[in-house]
Amino acid sequence: MTGLPLLIPDTAIYCEVCVQRSNADAVWTGHEYVRGRPEQDLQLHAAALFCGWTDARLVTTAVRSTTPRHGFYEQIPSTPIEAAGFCLWKLRLCMEAGNMAARRPAPGETLVHFFDINSEAPGKSRSWSPNTLPIRAVLNYKMAPYTQTYVAMPDIEPLLKSLHVPPLAGGRVPYTLPAILHKPSIQNEGATLNDSFALAVHLETIFPPEAGYKSIFPNGQCSYALAVAVLKVFRSIFPPVLPFCYPAVPKYLDERSREYFYASRKQMLGMTMDEFEAKGEALEEAWKATEAEIAVLVKMLKGRPSPRKNRGPFFEGEHPGYADMVLLGFMGWFQKNSQADLDRLLKLGDGELQKVWDAGHQWLEAEGENVEYEIPK
Hints:
The structure is a single chain. Helices cover 47% and strands 6% of the residues. The protein has three domains: 14-102, no CATH class; 112-216 and 365-370, 3-Layer(aba) Sandwich (Glutaredoxin), CATH 3.40.30; 221-362, Glutathione S-transferase Yfyf (Class Pi), Chain A, domain 2 (Up-down Bundle), CATH 1.20.1050.10. The chain is of the alpha/beta class. Strand 3, helix 5 and strand 4 (146-151) form a beta-alpha-beta unit. The protein contains 14 helices and seven strands. Strands 6-5-3-4-7 form a five-stranded mixed β-sheet, with helices on one face. It has helices at 39-51, 56-64, 68-71, 80-102, 133-142, 156-162, 196-206, 221-245, 255-269, 273-276, 281-302, 322-337, 339-346, 352-360; strands at residues 14-15, 33-34, 112-117, 146-151, 179-181, 192-194, 369-370. This is Glutathione S-transferase UstS-like C-terminal domain-containing protein. Residues 225-363 form the Glutathione S-transferase UstS-like C-terminal domain. It comes from Trichophyton rubrum (strain ATCC MYA-4607 / CBS 118892). InterPro entries: Glutathione-S-Trfase_C_sf, GST_UstS-like_C.
């Protein structure tokens, strides 16, 4: 079942993105909400408006028994009366847009607000960091409603300090993204969390399988342990990767972030980026070391020998988990740096990495609504 395309102005109070995806259990990628209403009522009220019924309470009662994002399109307008109501609804959207925009909730007040690192890439390909991409993949895979702000690199520290986020312990970069702001579920002073793994666990809690969201820990504690192991493997992968991936980062950063990146990495590495970059024989040695470390992940993806066919492309078979989101984020970073590097990476491991990429790369796209957020200078 495919979604009905909607021709609605960007300023409309209702937003819906719906497409058919390649994986059979996901028939749409977006979410529905009406600006200015509490999150739960957003979905229910949107269903009432979409069906063109004037008695919203009746529809609310009918929809409350199901999960709106799964059952929403079971009642699309099909009769002339419903079609007329649908046209009236679109007219109402245009008339009310201005009033609703004035009452729009602040970032993080109702929906999860996601802070990502800025780049100059266009459209939905703007995300690039191997740290932030896994969390974006989690939000998109769960089809969770969220808004987003892209933050220039020199603004990350003042942003997180203003939100009372403490520096990360043990990291060479104490203030980093991703981070989410969500007042209904985060109880610290700034209602903000960072650190990718902690964010993944939190998102699993507030968008749980019991409420109809897909799980990123499909096998419970085993999935959690697997994610910890994969993160440990990546700590060995990054050292040989950085000499040929780091130098590619500035090409897609905005000007302020580019200057910051060059200066901060020179201080961190003790050399310029040109001096750090692997070239010629050093580049091939870096790739050999990378391939040796990647081989561990490939072995984990293959699993033990089994007569069962079509076990699925992910670490745990047919259902992806957070471990897969980490791997996808890493591959997404390679794609941003160089399509040739991604192609070389995907050829490793008898096609195992290619299978993961083909099955999940769409979750790396920016699906949230862009919202301006004032950052202290």
